Amino acid sequence: xxxxxxxxxxxxxxxxxxxxxxxxxxxxxxxxxxxxxxxxxxxxxxxxxxxxxxxxxxxxxxxxxxxxxxxxxxxxxxxxxxxxxxxxxxxxxxxxxxxxxxxxxxxxxxxxxxxxxxxxxxxxxxxxxxxxxxxxxxxxxxxxxxxxxxxxxxxxxxxxxxxxxxxxxxxxxxxxxxxxxxxxxxxxxxxxxxxxxxxxxxxxxxxxxxxxxxxxxxxxxxxxxxxxxxxxxxxxxxx
Amino acid sequence: xxxxxxxxxxxxxxxxxxxxxxxxxxxxxxxxxxxxxxxxxxxxxxxxxxxxxxxxxxxxxxxxxxxxxxxxxxxxxxxxxxxxxxxxxxxxxxxxxxxxxxxxxxxxxxxxxxxxxxxxxxxxxxxxxxxxxxxxxxxxxxxxxxxxxxxxxxxxxxxxxxxxxxxxxxxxxxxxxxxxxxxxxxxxxxxxxxxxxxxxxxxxxxxxxxxxxxxxxxxxxxxxxxxxxxxxxxxxxxxxxxxxxxxxxxxxxxxxxxxxxxxxxxxxxxxxxxxxxxxxxxxxxxxxxxxxxxxxxx
Lengths: 239, 298
Description:
The complex is a heterodimer.
Chain A: H1 29-38, H2 56-71, H3 75-97, H4 100-117, H5 128-147, H6 150-160, H7 173-186, H8 191-203, H9 207-214, H10 218-236
Chain B: H1 4-9, H2 20-25, H3 33-37, H4 43-54, H5 58-78, H6 89-96, H7 118-123, H8 133-150, H9 155-163, E1 169-170, H10 185-190, E2 196-201, E3 207-213, E4 218-224, E5 233-241, E6 248-253, E7 262-265, E8 270-279, E9 292-295
Antiparallel strand pairs in B: 1-2, 2-3, 3-4, 4-7, 5-6, 5-8, 8-9
């Protein structure tokens, strides 16, 4: 299944730490055609249709509509919104908080906030997913900072960071393409930029705490976070 | 640490100082957008940034907001960890949903804890989904027990204190005198068509003047004749959420900030606004009883 990636490989820098094969020249055109013949092509022969299922664009459209219904008090829409997003909210909470019970509480609080604040969502001002994850991250970070000391958090982050490079993603084609773009774009950051942004996001650390952990100057960490996120934004084409 | 000198020298080529206050005063607020969007600042720093922006020129506020928006989209697209939440969580959440979302909440039970949530949820479910009140009670009770175990001692009393706070008097004592220009966030609240003003006594002297606008989902708070906090202490403002969750810090007021109006956003989901005295730098949760508290309910 992952072999489908072969025809996008030229776009990906060889720094991904994958097998040496990444340095090979472009695949021979013939083989590529052959490959595509025997498996599902990611470029569906239906380009004019709506955004493919599983892509963020399609998901955000659905979520925006659901938020509109939730703002009217629609519980079924709320349940559907939960089904579509709870894995993301809980997954993030777990990485920040580690503790299952605290993560569950946080998830519950986030969705209560969704229920109460759905009418505040403005699709002109950003995507539904970004809105939700902003609420979620803030909640998780507030919770972790009030319940654990920064040294506890750093220790836990260290223990859990192994799996962070291998975030589980859905099997849908749209998500998979998106995930590949993220891996590629994270590869355009310097190691220290990546580390600083991750420590802040999944570790719940402030820039000061990141600086202490990485034994770096405080202004430097602020620059790394700023430059790293801007580079990532540019690479991902966020507009 | 070996790089203390580097920290003390304050500046690196990127232009940031060691502390947020210097960044703000040296015109680098917009460059803090990414750090802010990443929640990589503490509560006091977040408040300082917001306080600065509240008085900043429109163009600067706009660029800050735009960069925050882009950073949030970027983060949402980058960190996509997924994990299956515990089975039954949705049911538990559904059972605890307040009767009506967003701003339509009735004025009763302003500071209802989680205990108050189960009843209205059933009422809001006329379609007859088997929401099961007994289940809600059971889960709600379990959650309450957990919450109480985690909450610092006195939190319940604190909430009760807010509930019992004297109802604020409507009056014409203007926050309006501090108005600067029409696009100022303070002004947007003060000039809202539905704004109402109120005052609440501050124990220790003076009063807090509130201008509340449900349509702007915001309130302006201005201290009047309130003594400076004791040395090493600050005033910290909190919104107490209607859903019974922990108070959310809305920022700090030191002696200097006392003279300026502060904008508090997100009041729609809050039952009350409280002010406590906290150690400098603020606290993640209130550690003392409020010196002032005002119900915000519609």
